[in-house]
Amino acid sequence: MSGTFETLLAKYGQSVTLCRREGEKETIRAFLQPVTERRETWRQTEPSPMGTVRKDRFLCLTGTDTPLENLEDGYLEWRDLRLRVSAAQPVYIGHTVSHWWAILTVEDV
């Protein structure tokens, strides 16, 4: 890690476990925040034939050394949640990747 964003991650980020396929796990630093719509709480559920399904989402920012695309069966563990990447992309400043941006969804386990 190097650069201003990585310095902020090291100081203020949360510890998150990145679980890649076949049991590969590593602890990373990330900023995680619930994505809320107006007048809604961060924990959202929706009825389904099997009961209720969680629909809450999280914004995730990670450093340049933690790309979150192409995880295939991978996921992130944070607190008591298993989070799947639904969208991810690098954020550029000029021609250089500054950090990674992702939207995570809660997976029921």
- The low-confidence parts are none
The number of distinct helices, counting runs of at least 4 residues, comes to 1
> How many E strands?
8
Largest sheet: 6 strands, antiparallel, barrel
Number of domains: 1
Average pLDDT for all residues:
84
* Shape, per Cα inertia axes: globular
Q: Name the strands of the widest sheet in spatial order.
A: 1-2-5-8-7-6
Q: Please state roughly what percent of the residues sit in beta strands, choosing from under 5%, 5-15%, 15-25%, 25-35%, 35-45% or over 45%.
A: over 45%
What is the CA–CA distance across the termini?
A: 32 Å
Order of helical and strand elements = HEEEEEEEE
Q: Calculate Rg over CA atoms.
A: 15 Å
Percent of residues in helical segments?
under 10%
- Main structural class: mainly beta
Descriptive report:
This protein is mostly beta strands. The chain has one domain (4-37, 49-107). Helix content is 8%, strand content 55%. The chain is built from one helix and eight strands. The chain has one helix spanning 4-12; strands at 14-19, 25-35, 45-48, 51-54, 57-62, 75-78, 81-93, 96-107. Strands 1-2-5-8-7-6 form a six-stranded antiparallel barrel. A two-stranded antiparallel ribbon has the order 3-4. A hairpin with a 2-residue loop joins strand 3 (45-48) and strand 4 (51-54). The mean pLDDT is 84.
